[in-house]
Amino acid sequence: MGRKSDRGGKKGKQGGKVVDTAQLARKIMSFLDNHFGQEFNAKQIIKKLEIRDSVAKGAVEPTMHKLAAAGSISKSPRNYFASIKEPEFIEGEVDYVNPRFAFIKPDPKHGIEEDIMIKEADLKHALDGDRVRIMVYPTKGSSGRIEGKVLEIVNRVRDEFVGRVEISPRYAFVVPDFKKMHHDIFVHRGDLKGAEHNQKVVVKLSEWREDDKNPTGKVIRVLGKAGEHEVEIHSIMAEFGLPFEYPSGPEEEANAIPEAIPQQEIQSRRDMRDVPTFTIDPVDAKDFDDAISYQVLPNGNYEIGVHIADVTYYVKPKTQLEKEAFDRATSVYLVDRTIPMLPERLSNGLCSLRPNEDKLTFSCVFEMDENADVVKHWIGRTVTHSNRRFAYEEGQENIDNQSGDFYQELTILNDLAKKLRKRRFDKGAVNFETVEVKFKLDEKGKPLGLMVKERKDIHKLIEEFMLLANRTVAEFIYNKDKGKDTFVYRIHDFPDLQRLETFATFAKKFGHDLKISEGAKISKALNQLMDEIVGKPEQNVLEQLAIRSMAKAKYTTEAKGHFGLAFAHYTHFTSPIRRYPDMMVHRLLQHYLDNGKSPDPDPWEEKCVHSSEREKRAADAERASIKYKQVEYMSLAEEKDYEGIVSGVTEWGVYVEITETKCEGLVRVADMNDDYYDFDEKNMRLIGSKTKKMITLGDKVSVRVVNTDIDRRTIDLEFADNGPKQRKRR
């Protein structure tokens, strides 16, 4: 009886063993596609594919020759083989994940929605945030994801790092604080700039050859002894590229500006100095951006003026002041200091709406009836005079006690603000009342106490009138020519339903049922949830998770709406002392009030992108400074068991927010010795192998602090029922 032949080349026999040549061919082609631009011979392919069976080894070279003959791969005269597929070349931003691989976020123009995975060996030393040009492999890798290789670093986003020096007799390394920098930086002993062992420094990368595992750098600034308050704050400033001092050029320009307001300038403006006016700000504020005026009109309506410091009168285009303000783009508020956008002479002096001083302002003046309906409004430049400066607490006290300066005006304004607020929420605004932590520090910066800021009616009063002014300015410009005029808007996209559903799943684990649907109903459901969680242990956790599930607000020249505020059009007009976009708005607004034509949007859009990036940098730095103080506070806190709530579950551990202090720490799986725990990613929980004990998001737990690391701004916890452990502090 004759032997059956292998049809279609699918099976091959050698020595009685069968080799699936079709599967082997697919493996070879996939490997070559994912190593585009490289050539391999049969021996190398066998090694790379880890083929150990002798029969399969023997089938590799014949299979490769058949693929080459069919035109599926290419063959060189030396019997080296390569892929013939065309890869895609794109640009994107590195989102570094861990020491083994990174993801690249492709530029939107390429139309690739999925992030591209790059193995560490193919990164060409690209770091988190760098812009890179990459080659995308034609087929997906073994991970099931699109993979690629970095060809070129287009723009290195940072080449300076803060870290701690470790010195040995022959060489030194800087261990970076930045968690996404996974390589220590080699420093020659002669490039230490006098830094001593364990001091904090700023190091600048000088060389990183392709074959070197670690970069080489030079110390450019010695910050001081690790753990000291001033050193750690300076470390944060250097980590985020924040300036340490104001340059002399802009400072000199600011100091040269005359104090007196020219009479001609006063005459060119609406004079509102006789209208009762006051400011309401935090008790420690020095830069007063905004003031409110109030008077009753003969017809019984109210005239409410929102007056904003006219910064652009003093900061002119093409000056050093302007250049520095644009570069900073925002003031940054760390736990113990403000890094201002403008020099102190402007921010705390000329522009600040201090009491009993005439000031140049840009104003929105509203005529409102008792229902808080705007009958009409006026926008333009004014001169004003603040009669009184209120701290929030003082203004609230006058409303509550119905006594003190301007208590009647404050009460009426508060009633109007409540009506504006209710109307806003009725139209679909989302009520995110985030928990803010504030520290009481001694003269050396040591945290003596921690408090949660309370938002009262007086805070909401100011917020509503600032929102009204911002919205009115945006709508005024938009309505001039149906959005065709170039302007700076503050937009907030509609949330992604999939991310909201994920958040709803989290909320359910805390016992809250969030029903997700289209349109304004989302806002209603979110507001209902926010009302439910006020004062509960999970409030801060859920508020933070909700905000993360939302789109990020940003500046743009696109006339889109603001989902969170439920405004068709919105801008930032009310804080030009501390935000550059508000200065942009003031300039464009006056340009249109003077009947100017719409300018080219591209330069304005570039400024919007820059401002949004600077805003993110400021927020990250502010969070880092708060986290540092939280770690320091917990290192000094009483050694006891703390009640907490599980705020995150990962394969490496459980994040717990301590209810009393709002500080978050990590219970590492490696330290949980009562059982071996498996991570259930789908349900965000850990399950004990023996006990079947479950630890899930939202669980109320009791923990103790076992380690605090100020360098890395981390708090290590353990569950209180896990047995005693020696506490460490760094």
TrEMBL record:
It catalyses: Exonucleolytic cleavage in the 3'- to 5'-direction to yield nucleoside 5'-phosphates. SMART domains: RNB (SM00955), S1 (SM00316). It comes from the Bacteria. Its EC number is 3.1.13.1. Keywords: Cytoplasm, Exonuclease, Hydrolase, Nuclease, RNA-binding. Its main location: cytoplasm. Residues 639-720 form the S1 motif domain. It is found in: Cytoplasm. It holds the Pfam family RNB. Belongs to the RNR ribonuclease family. RNase R subfamily. 3'-5' exoribonuclease that releases 5'-nucleoside monophosphates and is involved in maturation of structured RNAs. NCBIfam families: 3_prime_RNase, RNase_R. This is Ribonuclease R. It comes from Mariniradius sediminis. The gene is rnr.
